Amino acid sequence: MRNIRRRGFVAAGITALVAPLTVAVGSTPAQAASCTTQTGAYQKQVEKFLGRPVDGRQSVADCKAIQAFQTKHSISPNVGLAGPITWGVMDLMNRQKAVGSNPNRAGKCPTNKGRIACVDLTLQLSWIQDGRELAYGPVPVRTGRNGYETRTGLKKVYWRNIDHVSSIYHVPMPYSQFFDGGQAFHSVGISVWAPPGSHGCVNMTKTAASKYWSMLRKGDDVFVYGRKPGT
């Protein structure tokens, strides 16, 4: 097993989940639209998440805070309405944060493989472990949308290309590490929480993707399990 500075890696992953802040790879955040005065179905939950006064009534300040969140994460329409898509992203962030530094608590990712990259589709989280020891993460990821699901099961990294460009979508895929057909870990330039998801790849921030690049090698195991919400 490789020696790593575990505490620093875990802290970096958790910090990414806490920040209160997917659309095809390469998409850009939605442009700001007019703010709605309508109270959304998830008004109280969204107000609480954003640190707003929780009164269940839409205000101008509420709308602007919700709209900023929607714009950052490419949620459309971004009119400041506390609707199901916006709350779904926030709820996922809350559930990711609750995992803390023990993402394999249920033991679903194999612990008898040595170095392995785990992907929990249900929680949209990934991490690297050495046996039972957490080596890096967990970090939030963006996996395949409905109809382009990231395939589950035990796989292996079979090809790596740090400057890969998709031959299908003609967009950059930095730090690509392919593990199942055209599906790979790689970084994206948009939010990893942006709905509805990727075309099957496991999208990551540049920080996480570069760390995966430095820690994984051709032939290392990858285990994908669970089911992405909405697929």
In short, what is this structure?
The protein is of the alpha+beta class and 231 residues long.
Structure commentary:
This protein is α+β, with helices and mostly antiparallel strands. It has a domain at about 110-225: L,D-transpeptidase catalytic domain-like (Beta Barrel), CATH 2.40.440. It has 5 helices and 9 strands; from the N terminus they run ααααββββββββαβ. The protein has helices at about 5-20, 45-50, 60-70, 85-100, 205-215, and strands at about 115-120, 125-130, 135-140, 155, 160-165, 170-180, 185, 200-205, 220-225. A 5-stranded mixed β-sheet has the order 3-2-1-9-4. It comes from Streptomyces agglomeratus. This is L,D-TPase catalytic domain-containing protein. One of its GO terms (molecular function) is transferase activity.
Supply the key terms.
231 residues, alpha+beta, L,D-transpeptidase catalytic domain-like, five-stranded mixed sheet, 26% helix, globular, disordered N terminus, LD-transpeptidase
Report the structural category: alpha+beta
Oligomer: single chain
Order the strands across the largest sheet as they lie in space.
3-2-1-9-4
CATH topology of the domain at 110-225: L,D-transpeptidase catalytic domain-like
CATH class of the domain at 110-225: Mainly Beta
Give the termini distance in whole angstroms.
Answer: 36 Å
Helix content: 25-40%
Mean pLDDT: 89
What is the name of the CATH superfamily of the domain at 110-225? Answer: L,D-transpeptidase catalytic domain-like
Helical element count? 5
In one word, what is the shape?
globular
Spans of at least 5 consecutive residues whose pLDDT stays below 50 are 1-30
Biggest sheet details: 5 strands, mixed
Domain L,D-TPase catalytic: 114-225
Protein name: L,D-TPase catalytic domain-containing protein
Keywords: Cell shape, Cell wall biogenesis/degradation, Peptidoglycan synthesis, Signal, Transferase
Organism: Streptomyces agglomeratus
